[in-house]
Amino acid sequence: MAWTLRALRALALLAGFYLISGAVLALLVGIDVLIVIGVFEGGHAAWALVKLLAFSLALTIPIVQGMFALRVRRRRHDPEPWLAVTEDEQPELWAEIRQVAQLTGTRPPHRVVLTGDVNAGVTERTWMLGLIPGRRRIHVGVPLLVGLTRPRLRAVLAHEMGHYSNRDTRLAGITMRGRDAILRTIDALRKGAEGGSASQAFMVRMYLRYARLYMRVSQAVARRQEVAADLVAARTAGRDSTAGALREIPLLHAAFGFYVERYACVGWDAELLPPVGEFYGGFRHLLADPGREDELAVLRAELPEEEHSLYDSHPPIAERVRQIEALPEDGVADDPDAPGALTLLHDPTAVLAALESVTLVGESADMRHLEWGELVHTAARAACDRAAEPLRSATAAEGASADLAGVLDVIDAGRLWTSLADRLPKSAEAARATGRAAREFTRPAVRNGLAALVRVELADTGRGRWELSWSTTPQQSLPADVAEAIGPALDAAVADLPDTAPLRALLTVRPDSAGAGSTSPAPGSTLPVALPAPTKN
Predict the structure, then answer these.
(1) Among candidates 85, 464, 456, 527, which has minimal Cα distance to 262?
(2) CB-based contacts of 188: which residues, under 8 Å, 6+ apart?
């Protein structure tokens, strides 16, 4: 009853928002009418009329947009692409969803779509501001299928279905859409008021005060809705599986973002992609790698306690986990070794490939797909090429060949610190420096560019291949003697009195006479990178 009263109070405030907006619009229209009458009767300049009407329009447009935000949000298509799957194509997934809907006491969705983000949700095309139900669509993020077990995915689905299993959800749904509408109005007013008049600034302040009031009243409804959905999930999938899913989702958010940046998109600048079906599917390799076990365990234990904002509709994830774990024992154990949720899909490789075809569009549509090992090596070599480009350009400006041999020739000619280094891009501070200070500013850039050229040379002569590792970022594997000597050789080449002999001697070593491969990273290669801390779902 208390929840319903809060929802009704928020609904009344939402109605007040529309009443205020309607009153403001009526006032603006009235003023415009008086202005038009005054201009024509008084013979004032037409430009004054245009100016005043433009001012009125600047206030009117964002208010109208906000008033119709509920309608627009319901009618427009979701901005993110997805892959729709039918019951004939994916019978197990549909059966799981139907069973969850039955257990939660709500209608099953009419449509199931797969997305490429770490999220799940149910949307419904309602009428009368959400009071009359309509067709439902459930979207399930493939990273959840990759990273969750079947029982934990059931908990996630039950949470989303739980939003529709309570009788007062209709009012809560209107409340949530009202939050969105008011925020849209304020955002539009703020943009329109930038550099505007005092009247526009007053309008923004008025709506801001009303928005804060609405957010405070509606937040209790939003929070209670999330807690109620968590309880539905616990009753449906079990207390421990629900808590396990809540612990896992922030980790999956952090880990998947890291995976996309460091692995799936490692060859993006070189127009390269992982094997077909592996852009999303490759995430499982990162999660299953033994070298990441301790990191992942820490992320599971360190749940986010903070809120994203003062008016966040979700309680902190740590608080939600504590509430679920405080429930009485229900005898349903959570098995971390249960079958993965990806097993719900028939022919997951084909499904993941199909999802790529609808999510990786635009410039990525024509990119080449390479096997993981070849992708990492090719992308790393291309990155070194780009890193060496400033030094190549500077060498070409010296009249030498724009390659490693040309750089070494310019250094041997004594022009490293007299002209070559000055041709490299500099920061403002480096550009102002002179003498010894200028040299120290420039030395790292020269060494990094030279190291990149050396790494490309070693790769092209078969002595340095970048190896894929799911525990660290890719590293160039070098023969033992090269890995040990290359650092000092580079230092000698960029010393105050440069000496390229050690580097030349190192580069002339025959590949078949070099030592065994070394696990030491090559100069300038990336070191192991830790997964980022999770954020609240």
Answers:
(1) 527
(2) 61, 62, 65, 66
Residue 252 makes CB contacts below 8 A (sequence gap 6+) with 118, 143, 144, 147, 148
Tokens of 36: 């038009």
CB atoms within 10 A of CB 512: 7
Beta-strand pair 475-479/517-518: antiparallel
- What does each of the 537 residues of the chain score in pLDDT, given as a tens digit? 454 555 566 566 666 666 777 777 777 777 667 666 666 665 555 666 666 666 666 666 666 655 555 444 444 444 458 899 999 999 999 999 999 999 999 889 999 999 999 999 988 765 444 455 568 899 999 999 999 999 999 999 999 998 877 644 555 556 656 666 666 666 666 665 565 556 666 667 777 777 777 777 677 677 777 888 999 999 999 999 999 999 999 999 999 999 999 999 999 999 999 999 999 999 999 999 999 999 998 888 888 766 555 556 667 888 899 999 999 999 999 998 899 999 999 999 999 999 999 998 877 888 999 999 999 999 999 999 999 999 999 999 999 999 999 999 999 999 999 999 999 998 888 888 888 888 999 999 999 999 999 999 999 998 899 999 999 888 899 888 888 999 999 999 999 999 999 999 988 865 554 444 444 444 444 333 454 554 544
Rounded distance between C-alpha atoms, residue 434 and residue 55, angstroms:
55
Q: Could you tell me which residues are beta bridge partners of residue 369?
A: 273
Residue 173: burial class (beta carbons within 10 Å; 0-12, 13-18, 19+): buried
Strand partners, 447: none
With vertex at residue 216, the alpha carbon angle to CA 214 and CA 221, rounded to the nearest 5 degrees, is: 90
Is residue 314 within 8 Å of 537, Cβ to Cβ?
yes
d(CA 176, CA 179): 5
Q: Write phi, then psi, for 447 (nearest 5 degrees).
A: -65, -45
Q: How many helices (H) and strands (E) does the chain have?
A: 20, 9
Question: Residue 296 corresponds to which tokens in the numbers above?
Answer: 């992942």
Cβ count near 297 (within 10 Å): 11
